[in-house]
């Protein structure tokens, strides 16, 4: 059946609006900062040192996270056991924790007074120090391993069940036929995402880096804006971050060969391989080691938090309400934007999945402030701006998760739908959305949790009576109230995980039926 | 611990309520205006006198307040800026946004206060806070020679961090770089701000943390924990003096003057010790709260003038970074 000339197969204009907004919020804010710079100077040797350290730690962190994630994702993809779904949710927790909380959890295990050193002392071995490049990388792997596992797991789950069946029937090697091409398609994107996240690391790198050796570009930007008020240097450094991220995203896009061996009937995979004792043991080991690494620090955060719950001030209630509202709005924005962009496809997706990650939140916040302040009082729009910024920061993750699913749905069912005359919004609603429910739920959960835990730009805009939960937690920490802050951190962790679990469950409920 | 119960509804409203009385807008750092900081009580005390509406706007830390003010320039809504320290006042004065305070007073400060633009509202000594069970070094050299571990803050992102760099600069001048080189192996890590460093210390990651001589007062008074102390160094202690300034372009100049004069009075100063955990610049009539007498008091107070601080800071930070980046 020939298609009527000029019919819209999928709507493209919403994606264009999203791209324009992303550019405004990232590049536009940078230009706004530049317009207010009084001087134009170059970079000092300290800035160059910061750039090379930033690159080094980001490459190491991303490589280790991705490599370590492969066996874990493989084990999770081919084993079914009790509590698997809760384990998968919990494994995602470090990624959505506020940085300071996660660092405190890590230090409770790896710190000078942590469990590891207690154990080493008990067996008479020397103490180890976590501080330095190793500590930075360890923390980044802790944060990003869950993300890598989930991204790679999605890849495994996207291999059609029929192919595993066929491979089993033919006694063909699953790895080289099915898994290697999938990894080839998924790994570059996972690596690039984590590389970009680590590129803008600030607090982790400094706290665990042990000193100015571990200065990152983001800290240099912070110093330029806050202490030197050198807006030109801040904008220049932010531009360098953008350049590094675009190169990384471009390389990843180039390396990621779309897997093109045809469609399946869209059913849950059952695996016939991996029944040997060796593979059972290795899968079990991968899951246990990853779970211990990711969950023990969390348990310690929870234990400390329980003790502090009694000290949490009543202001926690309005802060919780604000954070939840912001999370609901920003999640909706993220999902709308990600659907619009995924459907549109093309180079805009690369830009929108890299630029926000590489944006320095301080530069974006400052630029927005410069743009908004002549028109209206920034405090009045603190919460909407926070929701929008959180949506921007979550968009790259949502895209990474949803775009492959949308592309696959289009590839597998696009011709059929077009021949049936299902085009335009109907195509998005009837064909694409039901096919991507799992990815959509996962992306929404991630966006909600990230928004909940993110300090964002609220500190730059808000007055003190508009605290969100993370801001309240930082303020408690900043006024000696460490116990109350631990309690607030526990509530934050609960809310983030809860939001993630609800959305992800909704998505997987659809996928498993 | 008691907290005033704020009506939830008020907290939820996104839009500031329009006030009938004149509004005095005071920019300050977040901690000052948190519910457990001095802000709410001072607001109540001042509003009882002025028949006006005092609005605190919290914006990050002291350095963030100044950068916000610089971004807003002449457009700023601020009438008063409260919470800069003497390391920031030179840059603040340079903006040309501040007017002479018109306030002069006798302050209980260990130094003479001569600045005509900025009015001090509280102060403290930087010091290393440690457990009482740790043998205290008598100065930076002893600390550097010891095996003691410390956590400090980054001078590029934190006011106490900058205070420590200025402290060593004031105490050692040309030898500052060698002191830093010797201290390098004592420093467990450097954090972006005070909260992270203090948190690490409380978790036992280091023997001591850079904070204030008044920090043990919080543990003693609020937590009834008398195990913390601060080390007294014989080369003297650098001070942090926190100040307020009046914005020249204020639309409520009389109210702003009234507030500037209010700072040195009982209604402001008596709130400071137990909320900001710093020394008031004018000791309240009933003296300092019980517990403050236990704090160590350095013999020598060190402080650069605002101009010297501004001139020395970049070089001192470079020396710090070079020594620690080895």
UniProtKB/TrEMBL annotation, chain A:
Record keyword Cell membrane present: yes
One of the GO biological process terms: transmembrane transport
Record key words, sorted: Cell membrane, Membrane, Transmembrane, Transmembrane helix, Transport
Transmembrane parts of this sequence: 12-37, 49-73, 85-110, 130-153, 185-208, 234-256, 277-300, 320-343, 355-375, 381-401, 439-464, 484-503
Keyword Chaperone attached: no
Membrane topology: Multi-pass membrane protein
PANTHER family per record: MOLYBDENUM TRANSPORT SYSTEM PERMEASE PROTEIN MODB, THIAMINE TRANSPORT SYSTEM PERMEASE PROTEIN THIP
Source organism: Marivivens niveibacter
PROSITE patterns per record: ABC_TM1
Name of the featured protein: Thiamine/thiamine pyrophosphate ABC transporter permease ThiP
Positions of the ABC transmembrane type-1 domain: 51-248, 316-503
GO CC annotations on file: plasma membrane
Highest taxon of the lineage: Bacteria
TrEMBL record, chain B:
This protein's UniProt keywords: Periplasm, Signal, Transport
SUPFAM superfamilies: Periplasmic binding protein-like II
Record carries keyword Kinase: no
Gene Ontology biological process: thiamine transport
Gene Ontology MF term list: thiamine binding; thiamine pyrophosphate binding
Cited Pfam families: SBP_bac_11
Keyword S-adenosyl-L-methionine assigned: no
Coiled coil: none
Compartments reported by the entry: Periplasm
Leader peptide range in chain numbering: 1-21
Gene Ontology CC terms: outer membrane-bounded periplasmic space
InterPro entries for the chain: ThiB, ThiB-like
Family the UniProt entry places it in: Belongs to the bacterial solute-binding protein 1 family.
Listed PANTHER family: THIAMINE-BINDING PERIPLASMIC PROTEIN, THIAMINE-BINDING PERIPLASMIC PROTEIN-RELATED
Protein name: Thiamine ABC transporter substrate binding subunit
């Amino acid at each position: 059946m020939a298609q009527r000339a000029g019919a819209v197969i999928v709507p493209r204009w919403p994606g264009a609006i999203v791209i324009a907004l992303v550019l405004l919020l990232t590049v536009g804010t940078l230009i706004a900062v530049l317009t207010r710079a009084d001087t134009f100077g170059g970079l000092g040797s300290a800035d160059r040192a910061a750039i090379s350290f930033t690159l080094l730690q980001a490459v190491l962190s991303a490589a280790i996270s991705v490599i370590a994630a492969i066996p874990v994702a493989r084990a999770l993809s081919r084993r079914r056991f009790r509590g698997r779904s809760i384990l998968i949710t919990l494994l995602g927790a470090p990624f959505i924790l506020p940085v300071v909380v996660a660092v405190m959890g890590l230090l409770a295990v790896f710190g000078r007074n942590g469990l590891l050193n207690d154990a080493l002392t008990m067996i008479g071995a020397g103490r180890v120090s976590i501080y330095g490049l190793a500590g930075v990388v360890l923390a980044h792997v802790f944060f990003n391993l869950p993300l890598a596992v989930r991204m790679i797991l999605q890849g495994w789950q996207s291999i059609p069940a029929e192919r595993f069946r066929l491979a089993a029937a033919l006694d063909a090697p699953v790895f080289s036929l099915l898994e290697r091409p999938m990894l080839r398609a998924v790994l570059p994107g996972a690596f690039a995402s984590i590389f970009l996240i680590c590129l803008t690391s600030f607090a982790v790198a400094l706290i665990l880096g042990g000193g100015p050796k571990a200065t990152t570009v983001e800290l240099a930007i912070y110093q330029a804006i806050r202490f030197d008020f050198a807006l030109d240097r801040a904008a220049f450094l932010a531009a360098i971050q953008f350049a590094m991220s675009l190169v990384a995203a471009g390389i990843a896009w180039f390396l990621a060969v779309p897997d093109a061996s045809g469609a399946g009937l869209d059913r849950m995979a059952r695996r016939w391989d991996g029944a040997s004792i060796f593979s059972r043991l290795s899968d079990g080991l991968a899951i246990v080691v990853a779970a211990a690494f990711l969950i023990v620090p969390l348990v310690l955060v929870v234990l400390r938090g329980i003790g502090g719950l009694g000290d949490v001030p009543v202001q926690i209630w309005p802060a919780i309400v604000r954070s939840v509202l912001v999370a609901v709005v920003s999640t909706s924005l993220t999902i709308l934007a990600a659907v619009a962009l995924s459907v549109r496809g093309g180079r805009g997706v690369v830009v929108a999945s890299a630029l926000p990650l590489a944006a320095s939140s301080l530069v974006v916040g400052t630029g927005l402030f410069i743009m908004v302040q002549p028109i209206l009082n920034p405090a009045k729009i603190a919460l909407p701006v926070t929701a929008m910024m959180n949506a921007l920061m979550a968009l790259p993750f949502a895209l990474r998760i949803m775009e492959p699913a949308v592309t696959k749905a289009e590839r597998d069912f696009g011709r059929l739908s077009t021949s049936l005359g299902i085009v335009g919004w109907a195509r998005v609603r009837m064909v694409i959305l039901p096919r991507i429910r799992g990815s959509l739920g996962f992306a929404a959960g991630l966006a909600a949790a990230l928004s909940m835990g993110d300090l964002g730009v609220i500190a730059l805009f808000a007055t003190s009576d508009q605290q969100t939960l993370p801001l309240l937690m930082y303020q408690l920490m900043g006024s000696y109230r460490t116990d109350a802050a631990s309690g607030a951190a526990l509530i934050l962790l609960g809310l983030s995980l809860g939001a993630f679990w609800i959305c992800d469950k909704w998505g997987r409920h659809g996928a498993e039926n | 611990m008691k907290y005033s119960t704020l009506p939830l509804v008020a907290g939820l409203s996104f839009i500031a309520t329009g006030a009938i009385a004149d509004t005095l807008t005071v920019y300050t750092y977040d901690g000052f205006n948190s519910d457990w900081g001095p802000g709410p009580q001072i607001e109540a005390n001042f509003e009882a006198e002025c028949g006006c509406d005092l609005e605190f706007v919290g914006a990050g830390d002291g350095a963030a307040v100044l950068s916000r003010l610089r971004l807003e320039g002449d457009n700023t809504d601020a009438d008063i800026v409260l919470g800069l320290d003497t390391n920031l006042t030179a840059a603040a004065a340079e903006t040309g946004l501040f007017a002479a305070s018109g306030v002069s007073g006798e302050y209980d400060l260990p130094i003479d206060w001569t600045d005509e633009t900025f009015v001090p509202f509280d102060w403290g000594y930087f010091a290393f806070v440690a457990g009482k069970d740790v043998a205290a070094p008598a100065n930076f050299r002893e600390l550097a020679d010891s095996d003691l571990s410390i956590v400090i803050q980054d001078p590029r992102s934190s006011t106490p961090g900058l205070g420590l760099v200025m402290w060593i600069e004031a105490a050692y001048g040309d030898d500052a770089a060698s002191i830093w080189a010797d201290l390098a192996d004592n420093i467990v890590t450097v954090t972006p701000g005070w909260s992270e460093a203090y948190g690490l210390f409380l978790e036992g990651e280091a023997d001591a943390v850079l904070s204030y001589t008044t920090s043990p007062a919080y543990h003693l008074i609020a937590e009834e924990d008398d195990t913390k102390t601060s080390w007294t160094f014989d080369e003297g202690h650098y001070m942090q003096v926190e100040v307020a300034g009046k914005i020249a372009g204020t639309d409520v100049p009389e109210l702003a003057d009234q507030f500037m004069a209010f700072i040195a009075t009982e209604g402001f100063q008596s709130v400071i010790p137990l909320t900001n955990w710093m020394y008031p610049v004018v000791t309240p009539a009933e003296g300092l709260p019980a517990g403050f007498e236990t704090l160590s008091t350095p013999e020598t107070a060190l402080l650069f003038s605002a101009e010297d601080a501004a001139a020395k800071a970049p070089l001192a930070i470079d020396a710090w970074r070079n020594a620690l980046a080895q």
